[in-house]
Amino acid sequence: MTTLTAPPKTASPPVRPRTSPRAGAWKRRIPLLPALIFTIIVTQLPFVATLVISTLQWNILKPGERHFVGLSNFKFVFTDERLRTAVLNTVVLTASVVLISVVLGLGLAMLLDRRFLGRGLARTMLIAPFLVMPVAAALLWKHAIYNPDYGLLNGTLNAVWRLFGAANGPTVDWVSSYPMPAVVISLVWQWTPFMMLILLAGLQAQPGDVLEAARMDGASALQTFRHITLPHLRQYIELGVLLGTIYVVQTFDAVYTITQGGPGSQTTNLPYEIYLTMFRKYEYGQAAAAGVVVVLGSIVIATFALRTIASLFREEVSR
Amino acid sequence: MASPRQILIAGSVAVTLLTTGCAGAGGGGSSAGSESINVLMVGNPQMEDIAKLTKSTFTKDTSIKVNFTVLPENELRDKVTQDIATQAGQYDVATIGAYEVPIWTKNGWLHELGSYADKDTAFDKADLLKPMVQSLSGADGKLYALPFYGESSMLMYNKDVMKAKGVTVPEHPTWQQVADIAAKVDGAEPGMRGICLRGLAGWGELGAPLTSVVNTFGGTWFTKDWKAQVDSPAFRKATNFYVDLVKKHGEAGAAQSGFTECLNAMSQKKVAMWYDATSAAGSLEDPASSKIAGHVGYAYAPTVQTKSSGWLWAWAWAMPKTTKNADAAAKFMLWASSKKYENLVGDKLGWARVPSGKRASTYAIPQYQKAAGSFGDITLKSIEGADPANPGTQPRPTVGVQYVAIPEFQDLGTKVTQEISAAIAGKTSVDKALNDGQKLAADVAKNYQK
Hints:
The complex is a heterodimer.
Chain A: H1 21-29, H2 33-53, E1 56-57, E2 67-68, H3 72-79, H4 81-113, H5 119-131, H6 134-146, H7 152-163, H8 174-177, H9 179-204, H10 208-216, H11 221-249, H12 253-259, H13 270-279, H14 284-318
Antiparallel strand pairs in A: 1-2
Chain B: H1 4-26, E1 36-42, H2 45-53, H3 55-62, E2 65-71, H4 73-85, E3 93-97, H5 100-106, H6 114-119, H7 130-135, E4 146-151, E5 153-158, H8 159-164, H9 175-185, E6 193-196, H10 207-216, H11 233-249, H12 259-267, E7 271-277, H13 280-284, E8 296-300, E9 313-318, H14 326-336, H15 339-349, H16 366-371, H17 376-385, H18 409-424, H19 430-446
Parallel strand pairs in B: 1-2, 1-3, 6-7
Antiparallel strand pairs in B: 3-9, 4-9, 5-7, 5-8
Helix pairs in contact in B: 10-11, 18-19
């Protein structure tokens, strides 16, 4: 626990070395320079290259036609109807996945916050979906669950129908009939554990004395949750939402595997559209421009995320 | 009990180990001096067979070491295109399809191979099927890739179901007859649908059978002087017919079904008929994976206005210009496409697995005739009947049956079939799909109009 009282003023100020503080700082930094330069090379040079490529008309299947076109690739990115649809799909996909998994994660975290027999086991099992590799998870959902012929959902429907004497249940083509929900549900399954972990950490950091005081004052469980727990969790929820958003915006595996962006372009999000531009159209300039736009968008979201994290730390310190 | 953090750490360690482990598998490139070549190929069963047989035969005879890299089709295209287009020169031989040959030849990326084939008398270039040679030649008439195996398309059906329903499938059906039969046999067994037709978006998935239907209905993607025809009456009629047939009597989950899903549906008796590649027959007749082995009937690709409507595809060996081992690479390609290799596969692995569809002589081998009795003849005649230069009722600007051989078609075909796939799923109308498709096609056509 840090104290908030000021230190006694009687102590003499520390003796400073003769060299100027700036030179001293540089002396300390010099051994770190190679690492810094290396980091700049591996992280910033590719981005600079992408920026350069985004100003070129470059289709690799047409060698010899590569030339500078200024910002026209960006104009294409902002005016192309398919890309606009992709932006919209990305927003819908990200928002629904993040919101639903925060709500579910909160519920699970509240349950896990209580003591019960086998809590550790339950927690481990609930975290499991987050540890499954995205491609494996998407394949699992596509084949084991959604498949109209041998998937779990239709299998269950059939079994229920047979209980009531029918020969066959309805054959619902889940992925084609409900493409966006199909992708969203598989992603919610993956991301709920992540939200649960963050919110559980928040719940366990809740000061016990405040809760006890609320109970003494006669607050109901619902009132305690609304007026004490939820405000306390606010920053944890914000953190979960922002980190989740940064990752879910980049979703590729689920879209590629489960729906291939279809039917039509109903589930084509930005990463998948960029993939198509790169590997079906081979238009490197357009793909790079779209990539730059996505990076800028992500930086905006990430800035908010970093601010939230910073405010969390401030709260920790001030407590 | 492990804390969440420990689990996260353990998980990330496991992922790191897995990825680094995988990185080792793809490597292992150059070794053993000049007499070693790198071959990149698609992961089809015929290619897996050659990877198994090479060391004990080809390498033993010639002391040329062959390093194979095997990838699924889409990844292969990504990789080989980038490798060749950027002149990286990592591979001496690559399998490419009939679609790529004219485009890459125009870019000057491929070695001419006809002269190598002419020098090798045992290779017998004249024995290669004419449509194969035609689709693997450049605009200059020279041969730029050697076929490994070829395919056309045909109608496959469950003979038991047809018999039970009292239906006879004609040897040369029309599409209307096929639609009528599909309606009759739909529901012949619980959960069985009338026909499987690909509905999965992609120029090489839904795009292939659909384009062959468009051809025989009198439609085309582009006219000879590059006018887009996607919203023309014939293209519309064909697409409406295709979409209606799949919607009414097609397989469950049609909008997500490609070749693999249809093969599965057919061999598991979920559909009564299937129109697709002739190369599927080998899998349908394999008792290990197919419930209808020995009970499959075959008919020619259904037609409307044309005499035949089978498509034409070849997986072929090509040599990038960047190779430094041209002679060794040529030796390998000539061996892999030779009669000798076909006999080797027949002797060692069984005659049904011979990479067929490229040589007339294959169909004269008695053992092969026996193994491919029910479908061999139709396959050969379908391939011979295909006319890649003139597959429909009107002249074309490019050579190719079920695709348009221009770089833009991968993108155009994928996007248009995405919309048609959505129409199959009931999410949009065929009219809207084709109107949007026409705009895309017209944009592409602008690059070629003079």
